[in-house]
Specification:
Elements (H helix, E strand, L loop, with lengths): L9 H10 L9 E4 L4 E3 L13 E4 L2 H6 L3 E2 L10 H15 L6 H8 L3 H12 L3 H19 L3 H7 L5 H12 L3 H5 L6 E9 L2 E7 L4 E6 L3 H7 L4 E4 L5 H12 L15 H11 L7 E2 H7 L6 H9 L12 E2 L12 H13 L1
Parallel strand pairs: 2-4, 5-8, 9-10
Antiparallel strand pairs: 1-2, 1-3, 5-6, 6-7
Length: 346
């Protein structure tokens, strides 16, 4: 058995142990092979040497490896906070209408203010945001199988179309019907612009840029949005094109461009986190997964990063592997290196 039996990145796990980060308690245990003991990540005992540590998904796996639980941090005892968060998640997921914070806190025996901190520390988002994300994901699944958008809205748990559009209109960009039907009913204007990193496709709806990529053409755009009306850029797009080209030359500068992007709730959470990485800095896929409250979803965070429709403006080039290597990039590592170097110089 190795530490690869857990889904969390070992480097991230070790940083959590060094920081004694309580938000990782219950997600893995730290096995100290020289003492034969396993602990919580937040254990207050002196830190072991890294070479003597292995990470396990649970206390049961650590015991199978011949280790015994620490008497100081008691890793097998579920804390009151952990139990409260688990109960709250079960309550939110089982409710037709998202429960209010006061009701959740009362149910788990905490004050609302304190439980808000406990839940956010454990899950990365507030209970209300967790409920919205859950409902949006249900809507996305329903939209894929329902013929009528209204049916999908009610199946996802919304009280009616008004609530659905109020919560998702800004997040989804295109209307739900257009999203489900490959851009049906939407006009997308496009152009190919010369940049210092090669030819760049810029495509936009009335709401904003929906595709920015290198080495793609009109045919690629039509494959992505097969039912949209695809038209050449008009005079109104001149400023958008100029700003996008300037963003390639100086990716550290805020671009101020509106975007019309779509993804699952998890993908969009990842994309938002990418925009929070300071120019000139990088984050690992594991750090991004942890930042959106899903530390075990490292591979999914990498997939969400790769699904980014808008290069440069949503800076997926700022994400690298935990070992410091660049990892992948849809438009070639030379472009990724160039974008990072330009940000560092700035």
């Amino acid at each position: 058995m190795t530490e690869q039996t857990i889904l969390i990145d070992p480097d991230l796990a070790w940083r959590a142990v060094q920081a004694r980060d309580r938000s990782f308690d219950g997600r893995f245990v730290t096995g100290v092979m020289t003492t034969g003991i396993y602990c919580r990540p937040s254990c207050p005992a002196r830190h072991p040497k890294r070479e003597n540590v292995r990470f396990f998904a649970s206390g049961a796996e650590a015991r199978e490896a011949g280790l015994r639980p620490c008497k100081r941090c008691k890793p097998d005892d579920v804390s009151r906070d952990e139990a409260a968060v688990a109960k709250a998640v079960e309550l939110i997921e089982g409710a037709e209408e998202a429960p209010k914070l006061d009701a959740i806190a009362d149910c788990v025996g905490y004050s609302p203010t304190h439980f808000l901190r406990v839940f956010r520390r454990a899950m990365g988002v507030t209970p209300a945001a967790y409920a919205r994300r859950l409902r949006a994901e249900r809507a996305e699944r329903a939209l894929e199988k329902e013929e009528r958008v209204t049916d999908a809205i009610y199946e996802a748990g919304y009280s009616g179309p008004g609530r659905f559009y109020a919560e998702t209109g800004k997040r989804l960009g295109m209307t739900p019907s257009a999203w489900r039907r490959g851009g049906e009913g939407v006009t997308i204007r496009w152009a190919i612009a010369e940049t210092s990193l090669g030819d760049m496709l810029i495509a936009a709806t009335e709401r904003g840029i929906c595709r920015l990529s290198f080495d793609e053409d009109e045919a690629a755009l039509r494959r992505r949005f097969p039912n949209a009306e695809i038209a050449p850029a008009d005079a109104a797009m001149a400023n958008i094109i100029a700003s996008a080209v300037a963003a390639v030359d100086d990716p550290a500068r805020p671009h101020g461009l509106s975007l019309d992007v779509q993804g699952t709730a998890f993908q969009e959470a990842v994309w938002r986190e990418l925009t929070r990485i300071p120019p000139g800095e990088t984050r690992s896929y594991a750090e991004i997964a942890a930042a959106v409250g899903k530390p075990n979803a490292v591979r999914a965070a990498g997939s969400a990063n790769g699904a980014n429709n808008v290069a440069v403006l949503i800076p997926c080039h700022r994400v690298i592997r935990s070992d410091g290597s660049l990892g992948g990039y849809a438009y070639g590592l030379k472009r990724k290196e160039a974008l990072l170097e330009r940000e560092r110089r700035r």
